[in-house]
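User: I'm putting together notes for a lab meeting next week and I want to include a structural view of one of the chains we've been expressing. I don't have a solved structure, so I'd like a prediction I can at least talk through. The sequence is below, exactly as it appears in our construct file.
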Amino acid sequence: MNRNRLLLLAGAVGAAVVIAVVLIVVVANNGSSGPSSPSTPGTSTAATPSKSLAGIPQHGDALGNPSAPATLVVYEDPQCPFCRRWNAETLPTVLRDFVRTGRIALVYRGVVIIGPNSVQGLRAIYAAANQNKLWNVVDALYAHQGAENSGWITNGVILNAAREAGANGKAIIAQMGSPAVTAALTRTAKQAAADQVPGTPTFVLERPPALSQPVSPTGLDPASFVAALTTALEQ
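Assistant: Thanks for the context. Below is the predicted structure for the 235-residue chain, given as structure tokens.
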């Protein structure tokens, strides 16, 4: 993997650290639009939404057939450039060859890796889940992604991303501070600790009744990722 940002400490200490960071940052940034970076790409012109999501059913944070025999859990941070790369270059192939064919479903889990501004994006993403537009908003935010910790995730960017994703931006802004969104962030942080997530993007394959297993590609390009995912599915 190209990036290995530290997310967790070992065991229970790691879980406590992650949850504490999420909750502290949530309180500090709730409702804040943040500064805008003049060098932020994509904020001055409309982004082109990906067509690869079209027609695939969504429910909350899940994408694809809920009866699929396996689920690929994707841990991401909206500020992570490697997450953006995976979404732009590799996700369309995964959707075409694995999700549309019913082999797997996807679940999004957003975690704070890079900094406080990530929480603003994650709150918008989880608020979009109420409209079953989570994956579309994730895609649109990546199209606007700016420099890490530059404060590029503003309410204005969120509204633009929502419009491009076909979502109700005003409703997303209104729901970002809701208890349900806060609970989703806390729940995801706990699961990240349980899955021992080392950084983003991280991929975990769930195929009950078998134990969950990491999917660790040698690269984020489509060929490397498909090879790793295929191997995990065949085990």
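A couple of points you could mention at the meeting. The CA atoms of residues 89 and 221 lie 7 Å apart. The chain is about 45% helix and 10% strand.

User: Perfect, that's what I needed.
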